[in-house]
């Protein structure tokens, strides 16, 4: 069996972190880096890039606002 301890880089600051049970905040190096990452998620700083929908800029299609009877 291989007894080498795997290390990963902290997603917050890049410091090496041993991947073992004693590394309390893994994959982060500290509570601070973990909290900063959680704050970034909570403030929606992490976003998945998307492209605009096909069609017009108003959302496309023949959708009407609730209560709108135009076209009926």
From TrEMBL:
<dbReference type="GO" id="GO:0006355">
    <property type="term" value="P:regulation of DNA-templated transcription"/>
</dbReference>
<comment type="subunit">
    <text>Interacts with GyrB.</text>
</comment>
<dbReference type="Pfam" id="PF03884">
    <property type="entry name" value="YacG"/>
</dbReference>
<feature type="binding site">
    <location>
        <position position="10"/>
    </location>
    <ligand>
        <name>Zn(2+)</name>
    </ligand>
</feature>
<feature type="binding site">
    <location>
        <position position="33"/>
    </location>
    <ligand>
        <name>Zn(2+)</name>
    </ligand>
</feature>
<dbReference type="GO" id="GO:0008657">
    <property type="term" value="F:DNA topoisomerase type II (double strand cut, ATP-hydrolyzing) inhibitor activity"/>
</dbReference>
<protein>
    <recommendedName>
        <fullName>DNA gyrase inhibitor YacG</fullName>
    </recommendedName>
</protein>
<feature type="binding site">
    <location>
        <position position="13"/>
    </location>
    <ligand>
        <name>Zn(2+)</name>
    </ligand>
</feature>
<feature type="compositionally biased region" description="Basic and acidic residues">
    <location>
        <begin position="61"/>
        <end position="72"/>
    </location>
</feature>
<comment type="similarity">
    <text>Belongs to the DNA gyrase inhibitor YacG family.</text>
</comment>
<dbReference type="InterPro" id="IPR013088">
    <property type="entry name" value="Znf_NHR/GATA"/>
</dbReference>
<dbReference type="GO" id="GO:0008270">
    <property type="term" value="F:zinc ion binding"/>
</dbReference>
<keyword id="KW-0479">Metal-binding</keyword>
<keyword id="KW-0862">Zinc</keyword>
<feature type="binding site">
    <location>
        <position position="29"/>
    </location>
    <ligand>
        <name>Zn(2+)</name>
    </ligand>
</feature>
<comment type="function">
    <text>Inhibits all the catalytic activities of DNA gyrase by preventing its interaction with DNA. Acts by binding directly to the C-terminal domain of GyrB, which probably disrupts DNA binding by the gyrase.</text>
</comment>
<dbReference type="InterPro" id="IPR005584">
    <property type="entry name" value="DNA_gyrase_inhibitor_YacG"/>
</dbReference>
<feature type="region of interest" description="Disordered">
    <location>
        <begin position="46"/>
        <end position="72"/>
    </location>
</feature>
């Amino acid at each position: 069996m291989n007894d080498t301890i795997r290390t990963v880089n902290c997603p917050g600051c890049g410091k090496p972190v041993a991947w073992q049970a004693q590394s309390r905040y893994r994959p982060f190096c500290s509570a601070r880096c973990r909290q900063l990452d959680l704050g970034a998620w909570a403030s929606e700083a992490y976003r998945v890039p998307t492209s605009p929908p096909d069609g017009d800029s108003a959302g496309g299609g023949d959708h009407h606002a609730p209560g709108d009877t135009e076209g009926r």
